[in-house]
């Protein structure tokens, strides 16, 4: 196969190419859209880096800023990137702890995609002199991806950061 045909697996998209999309300022998992993975016979990673992720502290309502890293091995579906951008933007006025944000993102993507493997890492900027960098992952139960998830969980942070490499 040399590439995706103009409409192959794209029939249900509503956001890509739509110039009238409005940004929602409330948590909106319903904006997520997927397309068919044309390479289901191959394991490969899809990685997204969102260096402008923002959410709110649920107690103080102060803004929290992070780089959100999302990596996954797709199965039958891949996430459409514009919908992912709009979804991540919907956290802007959403109040949740850092740990909750990464787990919510992962759960929503699992629900949408049913990936073979996924991990989400939020690298939040320090506030009050401390940074919180939650990391979570999932591998499809009963498969080699579950074993990968367990291995990655036990070894994900073997090289702790220094103050100058954030």
From TrEMBL:
One family name in Pfam for this protein: QueF
Keywords for the protein's UniProt record, in alphabetical order: Cytoplasm, NADP, Oxidoreductase, Queuosine biosynthesis
Active-site residues, as the UniProt record annotates them: 57, 64
Pathway where this protein functions: tRNA modification; tRNA-queuosine biosynthesis
InterPro entries: GTP-CH-I_C/QueF, NADPH_dep_7-cyano-7-deazaG_red, QueF, QueF_type1
EC number from the UniProt entry: 1.7.1.13
Location(s), subcellular: Cytoplasm
Enzyme's top EC category: oxidoreductase
UniProt catalytic activity: 7-aminomethyl-7-carbaguanine + 2 NADP(+) = 7-cyano-7-carbaguanine + 2 NADPH + 3 H(+)
Positions that bind substrate: 79-81, 98-99
Presence of keyword Lipid biosynthesis: no
Described purpose of this protein according to its UniProt entry: Catalyzes the NADPH-dependent reduction of 7-cyano-7-deazaguanine (preQ0) to 7-aminomethyl-7-deazaguanine (preQ1).
Family according to the record: Belongs to the GTP cyclohydrolase I family. QueF type 1 subfamily.
Protein name per Swiss-Prot or TrEMBL: NADPH-dependent 7-cyano-7-deazaguanine reductase
């Amino acid at each position: 196969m040399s590439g995706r045909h103009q409409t192959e697996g794209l029939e249900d998209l509503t956001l890509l190419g739509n110039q009238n999309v409005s940004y929602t300022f409330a948590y909106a998992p319903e904006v997520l859209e997927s397309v068919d993975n044309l390479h289901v016979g191959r394991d490969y990673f899809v990685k997204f880096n969102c260096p402008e992720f923002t959410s709110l502290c649920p107690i103080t309502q102060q803004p929290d800023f992070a780089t959100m890293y999302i990596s996954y091995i797709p199965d039958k579906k891949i996430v459409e990137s514009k919908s992912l951008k709009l979804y991540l933007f919907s956290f802007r006025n959403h109040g949740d702890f850092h740990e909750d944000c990464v787990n919510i993102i992962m759960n929503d993507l699992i629900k949408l995609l049913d990936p073979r493997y996924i991990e989400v890492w939020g690298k939040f900027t320090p506030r009050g002199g401390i940074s919180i960098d939650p990391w979570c992952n999932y591998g499809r139960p009963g498969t080699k991806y579950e074993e990968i998830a367990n291995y990655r969980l036990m070894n994900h942070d073997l090289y702790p950061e220094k103050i100058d490499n954030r």
